[in-house]
Specification:
It is a single chain. The chain is an alpha/beta fold. Among the domains are: 5-42 and 211-289 and 388-435, FAD/NAD(P)-binding domain, CATH 3.50.50.60; 99-202, no CATH class. The chain is built from twelve helices and 20 strands. The strands form five sheets. A seven-stranded mixed beta sheet has the order 8-7-16-17-18-15-19, sandwiched between helices. A five-stranded parallel beta sheet has the order 10-2-1-14-20, covered by helices on one side. A hairpin with a 2-residue loop joins strand 3 and strand 4 (50-53).
Length: 439
């Protein structure tokens, strides 16, 4: 056994970022990936001349957030990012820029004035709740807002909640909306956070990677030190056993061993892989809430989306987020054509074919002219995050009760979403490994 080797289970973006960091810190890394592809939902591929991502991605906190920290420390090749532009809201057959701050809310005439006043009042009540000892991670947006708003306002708030957490505002914690604001400040003062919510300028630190989401994975792979990382695909981990400090990993194709294992798969599946987990801990892993998503990619034979930025469609049923990715990088679509991703959250116990049809009809109901411009239609069912941040979700944290086994990924960290959340988790892992002198 190579005592300098660490095994990373999973070659999604969390596992790849972890492997890069460990290799740059001097360790040899073996990555075991169950599928034939690497990158997880940080991957792109060709569909009839269009390059589609695994779900629409806009990367948040690029200039000052966790991915930037990892890029500065470990990347030899850095992706080229294009500014996202504005978010627009489509509600009641009208389109307006998203209201990021106090002035924006007062001028957001897609919802009635009385509702706008109620929402601003609810925001100011947050400081009182905090001072009175209320746990804002357990207080839902629905409880904060109440039921005295008109139907379109309630739909708008539910739509935002679904895209930020995967669930309705009845399950979305108030803390999630505070987390979304001005993360650059490390102040824990609730008044500072509230000030940032009310005065934020907009989505000024959100970007799309030129070349598609695959460019991030390519940058990670290109930055790995030669001979330090080996990635094996089609290696599904069936069991992990702890024997006198040595971890024996059985896969579909063989057996591997190491003193340290980093598991980046679904933490909820770990009890079926590690038999020695304490019962209480294993049960807690199963309590993470997962939200599946559907993406419909439409290749259009004409540029139908002219604005810089993306659109949140409250009018559609189900709600959708429309991202015209070829506006950021025209090479993702054939010349003169446009590629647009439409993201939907899927309900529990969904039937895939039924939801695909329902979602496609919803797009054409909002924008009927799109239907006659469709060049290609491509569907993806994905898991954007391994755990949705709801008032009842338990996040696992990095350490496990088994010495030498650690977790990483979007079910270990609440902050933000997608690649940004994964990056936070990797930084947390590295901090723990340094404290325990693994690296």
């Amino acid at each position: 056994m190579d005592k300098n080797r660490i095994i990373v289970v999973g070659a999604g973006i969390s596992g790849l970022l972890t492997s890069l960091a460990l290799a740059k810190e001097g360790r040899n890394v073996l990555v075991l990936e169950k599928s034939s592809d690497i990158g997880g939902v940080c991957r792109s591929y060709d569909v009839d001349g269009y390059q589609v991502d695994t779900g629409p991605h806009i990367i948040t906190r690029v200039e000052n957030g966790p991915l930037r920290e990892l890029m500065d420390m470990y990347f030899d090749v850095v992706p080229n990012f294009v500014p996202h532009g504005r978010y627009y809201v489509r509600l009641n057959n009208k389109v307006k820029p998203f209201p990021w701050n106090l002035q924006g809310w007062f001028n957001f005439d897609l919802i009635p004035p009385v509702d706008r006043l109620h929402l601003v009042s609810a925001l100011f009540s947050i400081s009182y709740l905090f001072k009175s000892g209320e746990d804002l991670s357990k207080k839902s947006v629905g409880d904060l807002i109440g039921n005295n708003l008109c139907d379109s306002t309630m739909r708008f708030l539910n739509c935002l909640s679904y895209f930020m957490t995967g669930t309705s505002m009845k399950e979305t914690p108030v803390q999630r909306f505070l987390d979304a604001q001005h993360y650059k400040s490390r102040s824990k003062n609730i008044l500072d956070k509230l000030y940032n919510v009310l005065m934020k300028e907009g989505a000024t630190d959100q970007f799309y990677p030129k070349g598609g989401i695959q460019s991030i994975t390519n940058s990670v792979l290109s930055s790995m030190p030669k001979g330090k990382v080996k990635i094996k695909t089609n290696e599904e981990v069936k069991s992990i056993e702890d024997s006198d400090g040595k971890k024996k990993i059985q896969t579909t194709n063989g057996e591997y061993s190491a003193e340290t294992v980093i598991y980046s798969g679904f933490a909820s599946e770990l009890p079926g892989i590690i038999k020695e987990l304490p019962e209480g801990y294993g049960d807690s892993l199963k309590e993470s809430h997962r939200a599946d998503a559907l993406t419909i990619w439409l290749g259009l034979n004409e540029q139908m989306f002219k604005r810089d930025g993306s659109e949140i469609w409250v009018d559609s049923d189900p709600y959708t987020w429309a991202v015209p990715v070829s506006n950021y990088d025209p090479s993702l679509a054939p010349k003169g054509k446009q590629l647009v991703g439409f993201a939907f959250r899927l309900p529990e116990n969904y039937k895939p074919e039924k939801e695909k049809k329902r979602a496609l009809n919803a797009i054409f109901e909002v924008k009927p002219k799109l239907e006659e411009r469709v060049d290609i239609t491509h569907y993806q069912i994905l898991v954007p995050e391994k755990a949705a941040w709801t008032i009842n979700t338990k996040f696992t944290g990095i350490k496990t009760p088994v010495n030498g086994i650690y977790l990483v990924g979007t079910d270990t960290e609440k902050r933000s979403m997608g690649i940004t959340r994964a990056s936070y988790s990797v930084l947390n892992l590295l901090s723990v490994l340094k404290e325990e002198r693994v690296i």
